[in-house]
Amino acid sequence: MSSSPKKVIIVGAGGHLGPHIVSAFDADPHFEVSILSRLSSQSTFPPHIPIHRVSDDYDETQLVGILTGQDAIICTIATHSVQRQRAIINAAVKAGVSHFVPSEFGHDTRNEQAAKILPQLFAAKKQIVEYLKSKEKDGLKWTAFVTGPFFETAVFNILGYDVKTKRATILGYGKNRWSMTTLSTIGLAVKKAILLPEKSSNKYLFIESFNTSQNDILSSLEYSTGAKWETTYHDAEEEKRLALEKISKGNYSGISALMRYMTCAKGHGGDYMDYEESSNELLSLPKECLHENLARMIRVDEAKIG
């Protein structure tokens, strides 16, 4: 325990995932947690956690000053800004930071089939990991997480389920299995990895809350809502073609359909547990119940409507 990083600074703490990572580290007395935020950011953070402000262009001199004395950086910066991490990585090396977790959370960006479909989302993330590898010689360790879709934001946004209308869109026969992870478990996994630098450094870690299928989710949703859902089965390749056509015309609503395709279609990285070793046991992650989590999400959604 004594050799693991203690002072942790979190970048991008105001997004979907960031608050859960902040919460995981803040709850552990081993860590001293702070947040790095852009000057223009309107995000709010827990009042007891120190906030360091940096110019929107991530000025290196400012960054080095802020990062000096920090042991680890956890980055959850938005996908469209991931190349900004280069400036943070450069400053981290100069400041003597020992560990960097890039904003790699989500799909397996190494998957070549998926990268051909959405290079704009995959290439930048993969390039950042390659850049981190080049800094290993300077003493900067890294850990990248493959988590699949974020459970809470994916089910009712990209995976084809509409709880309000009780309609489901299923690709193929809905039997393919793939992985996804809850936000709180991702936060816990990152914290556990930082506590185990000798086992988690300079590698990808593959985690999941659920290994499931579209049919599994549909069955659970029907049970929780006490209703038979209107279900349509779509040809996966046709869905991909239509989504790519939309994007080619500047209609980026097709991205959600492509993310569903890459998650649910075999061979596109959503099924990463078929070819990689799970890190759940290494990180002592809890076993979670898909049905309980879906039921909880439905209650939250109904409360918002009510």
UniProtKB/TrEMBL annotation:
Top-rank taxon: Eukaryota
One GO molecular-function entry: oxidoreductase activity
Gene3D superfamilies, alphabetized: NAD(P)-binding Rossmann-like Domain, UDP-galactose 4-epimerase, domain 1
Protein name: NmrA-like domain-containing protein
Keywords: NADP, Oxidoreductase
A Pfam family that the UniProt record links to this protein: NmrA
NmrA-like domain: residues covered: 6-237
